[in-house]
Amino acid sequence: MPRRAVLSDEQRAALLALPADETLLIQHWTLSQDDLAVIVRRRRPHNRLGFAIQLCALRYPGRLLRPGELIPHAPLAFVAEQLQVEPEMLTDYAMRGPTRYEQLDALRDAFGFTPLSRPPRKTLQEWLLPIALTTTSGATLARVLLDECRRRRIIVPGISSVERMVAKALLDAERHVADHLTQSLSGAQCHLLDALLLLRAGTNLSGLSWVRQPPGKPGRKTFAIIIERLMLLRAIGIDPDIAASVHPERLRRLCQEGARLTAQHVRTLQAARRRATLVATVLEAVVTLTDDAVLMFDRLLGQMFRREQNSEDAALKRDRRTINGKIRLFAQLGDALLAARMSGGDIGAAVEAAIGWEDLGREVDEARRLVRPDAVDPTTIAAANYPVLRQVGPSFIATFTFGAVPACHALARAVSIMRDLHSSDLRKLPADAPMGFIRQGWRRTIGNATPDRRTYELCVLVELRDRLRAGDMWVEGSRRYRAVEQQLIPGPVFAAMRAAGPLPIPAPDSAATWLTERRERLARRLAEVAGKAKMDMLEDVQLSAGRLRISPLKAVTPEEAETALAPLYAYLPSIRITDLLAEVDRWTGFSQCFTHLQSGRAADEPRAILTAVLADATNLGHTRMAEACNVVTQRQLGWLAAWHLREETYGRALARLADAQHAAPLATLFGSGTSSSSDGQNFPLDRRAQATGAVNPHKGAEPAVSFYSHVSDRYAPFHSTVISASASEAAQVLDGLLHHGADLRIEEHHVDGGGVSDHVFALCHLLGFRFAPRIPNIAARRLHLFEGMEPGPDIAPLVAGKIHEGLIAAHWNDVLRLGTSIRTGVVSASIMLERLGSYPRANGLALALREIGRVERTLFTLDWIEQPDQRRRATRELNKGEAENALKRAIFFHRIGRIRDHALQAQSHRASALNLVAGAIVLWNTTYLQAVRTHLANLGCPIPPDLLQHLSPLGWQHINLTGDYLWTDPDTRSEALRPLRLTRAVKGPAKP
After folding, report:
1. How many angstroms separate the CA atoms of 762 and 773, rounded?
2. CB under 8 Å to 394, separation ≥6 — which residues?
3. Nearest-angstrom CA–CA distance, 460 and 348
4. Under 8 Å CB-to-CB from 48, ≥6 apart: which residues?
5. Which of 81, 194, 241, 859 is the most exposed place for a label (fewest CB within 10 A)?
6. CA angle 942–943–945, rounded 5-degree value
7. pLDDT tens digit sequence for 1-36
8. What is the pLDDT of residue 1?
9. Are 106 and 54 within 8 A, CB to CB?
10. Beta carbons of 683 and 668 less than 8 angstroms apart
11. 976: which residues sit within 8 A by CB, 6+ positions away?
């Protein structure tokens, strides 16, 4: 075996396994006429069959057959059929010892196969290095090497030789990258890099650990610390362009290692490897700190305005009785004045009689004091928060370099002026300071004159924040706040893709084609719905003269379903959550997906991996989990979490469970497998982590984060992400549909009101998904039609305006480029949707995408009105997600469901682990419910399939989620299911 194992046992077996799939057999084991001409020279049928199979094995997978190797039936029958012989004849093959060797010599002579001797091995090793520079996956490199061996007709002696070559190529690639990253470092830079591994003065943290600390609670001190860390790393003077020629996968691996290795561990590495890891870590940390600084700047400005708003609310609450008294006095005085006017009496006497002039003067003075500004007053905010502006604003502007689109030229010049004012210690604004960027509402408050410096700087910083959000301005060196143009596929590359052939999105190449098709469809659907509305033929819908009312859905679960399904869960055996995970792992091997970051190998003890996953999923944590289980210690759990539990490994494991769930026979009755839904679930933050959260007043009064998860119609969770509780869910919809890794074919997706926007409608359509949300108060949503469409009297009041076809046509190339960039993974949909949602009204791409979304939303609304099945389907799928959230709440019960982690990565691991354990429970329940179904059928009590569609595999009463987390004998490898509980089933409604 090689000294450095880069393949798992499963991968070793699969790489040189004989093909059993018909597609591979047709591709590689089909014999040509020339092949048959050589084969028929063998004298006996069994020798011809053996010779042909040896030939096919040399072609794919590229190796010799081992003596006595059992040939699977599928490839054997495939070859035998071509030779018109019986497969059983192979048993007589090579009865004479030298026959195999003689035939091997004949195969070499006739077909040009050569052994992997030293010269071709050296050539292949050199050929493999450039490919190894583009990947860190040993399995991927092994497949490429085997493909090349087959192309060159080189006989692979065994998997160990392949693994040794792959291991050497990976090691050579690591050394090549390390040399590239360190060759231009000066002695001073090397000294500064090594200094990061030393303890900082007065602390017990190394410089490396200090710069990797997550940002704390938003505040001036936190912002200053982020800037200090950034300046420390910038002082090393590493040119970011040094990494431009390193493949992103290679650089990402070095960054991941740098994020996990302690300073002590890094010090033990060989010098070139140590400094290469530090270079990659520093470059990544600079980008991360840049994003953190911009985000902290954004949050600090937001805090200023929230404090002002809270102050206004508090003043209003404090003075509400006084204000109410003034209103009553005003009403009393008004009545007296009106009465005097109508009767012709003296107005002065009326005032004196009603309140008295002295009292009126005092009341007017007090009312003047109670007057609050109608809008935000920038002058007041600047004066009240100048200490924050003074410390944060100049530092932010001086630290970063900003770019801007031409429309933001005035703001860019104002930023430059502000930088010069503070660098030169000037006090007065220049007379020609630009004012055009200041928002109109503030201009009315400030006036036309040049404002004072405090107010001007506030206007600059607030507008800079808004433009950074939108992408009209960007920060050089940032990942999240870089130019939108840099986030998309480069223009020349996209032009070449468009000219070469169809784009990877199901959108027509021409805007005219798309507009014609959607116009015709919208006209047809409009006529159909209008006709049914006129005849009052819309089921559960009243639509007349613009008044739309959709009746609530009626329950569709028949009573006989509840009676028939009630006993099923009573048969399920009781089980610990640990044993459940171990059993699902035996079925699917999902623990093998948690590979080591460096070696790529799975953990030696699957139970240890499952324990680490369970510690995150239950919110128990490593310390208490180590005390509650009998497998690993706290340090072992920490090591496994650092090196094996990553977002990509969680994603692979979840994809394996999702595929297994969709393949389960019972799951096919839950849904077609082509629909899904997504929803957010709020989890409050513990006191120590509250600085990282936000308050969503609709979901509670505490800081929280939201786990946004996707679930298929067969109850399989297949994606999750962590977002702020106050963030829009609409931006997260597409990420889960595009980047889940499972073998799912999702066609229709459902969300609740929080995930709805016109931009999401547009991008879902462009990327090939049908977006079918449950829109709250859909009657208040206006429709949009093409020019010239006449909706009829019932629908006309619902129409808000016309579709801007010219805008769509003018920006169609940009729309296609955006869709292609998202589909190919160049940029995530969530980032682009957040940017598009922040764009000013003048941005053409955002407006064109909005117009496309209006078309799709109008079509969807017409379907929603006409088709009750659409409404039922959306409600049913969303109910599945909400029921799964209840299961997750039961799993995530430790620490009262509060999250203590303040790092986003740790929170993401909690969400991923929770999704994974929920998926394992769903698969286990589905498998055993199928066993119960079979058992009842054998007893003569079959359950009709049309009733089973109402069954949910989300029950957990039989699962022990609390208490100890002990594991059974690891040597138990039985494939048989546990015995069912054959107790008398309790009749009654089925519990979830």
Report:
1. 13
2. 418, 419, 422
3. 52
4. 39, 40, 42, 83, 85
5. 241
6. 125
7. 345 678 888 888 889 999 988 889 999 999 999 999
8. 38
9. no
10. no
11. none
The pLDDT, as a whole number, for residue 536 is 86
Rg over CA atoms, the chain: 35
Give residue-wise pLDDT tens across range 793-830. Answer: 888 888 988 999 999 999 999 999 999 999 998 899 99
Asked whether the bond before 61 is cis by omega within 30 degrees of 0, the reply is yes
Instruction: Dump the DSSP string for 349-388.
Output: HHHHHHT-HHHHHHHHHHHHHH---SS--HHHHHHHTHHH
pLDDT digits (tens, 9 = 90+) for 863-905: 999 999 999 999 999 999 999 999 999 999 887 788 887 778 8
442: CB partners within 8 A, 6+ apart: 376, 378, 459
Region 750-763 average pLDDT: 90
Cβ-based neighbour number of residue 296 at 10 Å: 24
Amino acid at 827: V
Nearest partner of 602 among 164, 10, 163, 1, judged by Cα: 10
Tokens (6 digits) for 627: 């005390």
CA dist., res. 563 & res. 921, Å (int): 24
d(CA 597, CA 137): 10
| Pairing assessment for the beta strands 154-155 and 114-115 based on DSSP bridges | parallel
Query: Average of pLDDT values for 417-437?
Result: 85
User: How far apart are alpha carbons 267 and 288 in whole angstroms?
Assistant: 23
Is the confidence at residue 380, as pLDDT, over 90?
no
Do the beta carbons of residue 218 and residue 207 sit within 8 Å? no
* Torsion, CA 553, CA 559, CA 560, CA 563, rounded to 10: 120
Q: Which residue has better confidence, 779 or 584?
A: 584
Q: Is 141 exposed, middle or buried (0-12, 13-18, 19+ CB in 10 A)?
A: buried
171-213 confidence digits (pLDDT tens): 999 999 999 999 999 999 999 999 999 998 888 889 999 998 8
The alpha carbon of 924 is separated from its chain's Cα centroid by a whole number of angstroms, namely 26
| Cβ proximity of 822 and 828 under 8 Å | yes
> What are 708's two structure tokens?
């946004």
pLDDT higher for 79 or 560? 79
User: In whole angstroms, what is the distance from residue 75 CA to residue 19 CA?
Assistant: 7
Sign, CA dihedral 477-482-485-489, equals positive
Determine how β-strand 959-960 pairs with β-strand 799-802.
Answer: unpaired
Tokens 């092994």 belong to residue: 142
Closest C-alpha to 480, from 295, 291, 299, 297? 291
User: What gap in Å lies between CA 961 and CA 578, rounded to an integer?
Assistant: 9
Residue located via tokens 């944590």: 621
CB 584 within 8 A of CB 605: no
Name the pairing type of β-strands 675-684 and 799-802: unpaired
Looking at residue 492, the DSSP 8-state letter turns out to be: H
Mean pLDDT for the stretch of residues 619-625 = 89
CA 527 – CA 533 distance, rounded (Å): 10
Three-class DSSP category at 155:
strand
- Its pTM stands at 0.84
SS3 473: strand
CB 477 within 8 A of CB 286: yes
Tokens coding 312: 């206004």
How high is the pLDDT of residue 790? 85
Strand partners, 206: 199
pLDDT-based confidence at residue 988 (cuts at 50, 70, 90): very low
Asked if 210 and 229 count as a contact pair (C-beta separation under 8 A), the reply is yes
Tell me 330's DSSP state: H
- As a residue count, the chain comes to 992
Question: How large is the average pLDDT for residues 634-663?
Answer: 93
User: Helices marked H in 269-356 — which ranges?
Assistant: 271-318, 320-343, 347-354
Q: Is the pLDDT at 985 greater than 60, yes or no?
A: no
Contact yes or no for 208/197 (Cβ under 8 A): yes
